Amino acid sequence: TVDFLEAFGVSSVPSTCRSECLLMSVAFGASMTPLKKRIEAHMKRPPQSGYDRPLNVEIGFYLESLGNFRETQMTFDTDMYMYMSWRDSTLNHSDEQHIMVNDNDIRNQMWLPDLYFANAKTAQFHHVTIPNFSMFIAKDGTIAYSCRVTLTVACNLDLKDYPMDVQNCQIRILSYAYIASAVNVTWFKKSAIQYNPEISLPEYEIISITPAYCNGTYRYAVMPNSYRVDQFSCLVANIRLHRSIGYTLVQSYFPTGLIVIISWVSFWIDRAAVPARVTLSFSTMLSLTTLGNGLRYGLPQVSYAKAIDFWFGGCMLFVFCSLLEFAVVNSYMRQSERNDKLSGKSLRTKGKKNIKEGDSEGGIEKKRDVREFRSDSQVGQVLIENPDQVSSRNLAEHHAQLSRKYSSMALSIDKACRYGFPAAFIVWNIAYWSYYLSTER
């Protein structure tokens, strides 16, 4: 206790007081007995600091523990030692030593600052093994009071940059009934807030915990037809935290990135292996959706997109584009197969025409496919082909060319995507991480 009082600017307790103060608080010696009577005479009355002057109360605290941040409920827990100091001239005494009060009945008779934690959902004092408080009264009536408090504090988390977010949580302290002109509450001028250096948070790193002041203008004395507005003392402890991204990297970013990379395997699978490519594309899409849904269950349903949502959206887009790529390639391959079949059909039609029996006219056999040879000195030959034969052969060659063209286009798309998708994914990663990890954010 002596170390805490010195840290918060309160006069230190001499070592000789450790036994004497305890004796006074238990036996009520010469100094404590009249002091107790004065406490009873001024029970629960606020000290008077002078005409038109507010009573100055200085406070500070030491955070013993901090943690249990719940994103879905937007709360966190803290265990702290709270320190308050003010002067009550009615408690002056002649003893050179500080008088220690550890009797709960005496404390309940004294005036204490009516401070409360405005954004605390629950708050409790500790009573094991005895009520956790200490009080020292200096010779001039200056009181040093400390107690241990556990709070569940509301914190409006801004998850737009999750999981690279920096959170600013506050502990707001106000005077409940006394306006600032009556009781002026301020921070200790030196080392107002300290915290346990051994505090280790699983998801966050503490950047800073600093004291500040807030606007305490509120309505009070509210009646059916009137109310008053004045300034209340309002103090705030700003807790600045940076989220550790390691857990989310392992649980979300790495698996989804690998799923995207696995989806590129379809570009290397044979274009005709339709079942294999379809299975791979839909499996990666389903796995990515499952991972995304699992992450959302641990976060509140906010009305804006988070950084992790943009990542999942980008990964989903890459997987979906690989599925679209297969649809385009498969369409070209079906066109190639169709033209290949038409080419074969044209050739078969041509063969049938070549062997078709013709009728005889004038004792000379006449065929559709006629090759008439003229002899000019028995050396020259003239080949005359039937127009139907030319048409069938040209049509077959045309379909064969289309078949090769569509097959070549499908292969070209696959080859382009083998390198285009990884390059685009790298560019996407550079843009994404540069934006969210920039120091300006």
Automatic annotation (TrEMBL):
Residues spanning the membrane: 252-269, 278-298, 310-333, 416-435
Family designation: Belongs to the ligand-gated ion channel (TC 1.A.9) family.
MF-aspect GO terms: extracellular ligand-gated monoatomic ion channel activity; transmembrane signaling receptor activity
Record's subcellular location: Cell membrane; Membrane
PANTHER family: NEUROTRANSMITTER GATED ION CHANNEL (PTHR18945)
Claim: Transport is one of the keywords in the record: yes
UniProt organism field: Parascaris univalens (Nematode worm)
Domain Neurotransmitter-gated ion-channel transmembrane: start-end pairs: 253-342
PROSITE patterns (UniProt xref): NEUROTR_ION_CHANNEL (PS00236)
Mode of membrane association: Multi-pass membrane protein
Neurotransmitter-gated ion-channel ligand-binding domain sequence ranges: 46-244
GO annotations of cellular component type: plasma membrane
Entry keywords, A to Z: Cell membrane, Ion channel, Ion transport, Membrane, Signal, Transmembrane, Transmembrane helix, Transport
Protein name listed in UniProt: Uncharacterized protein
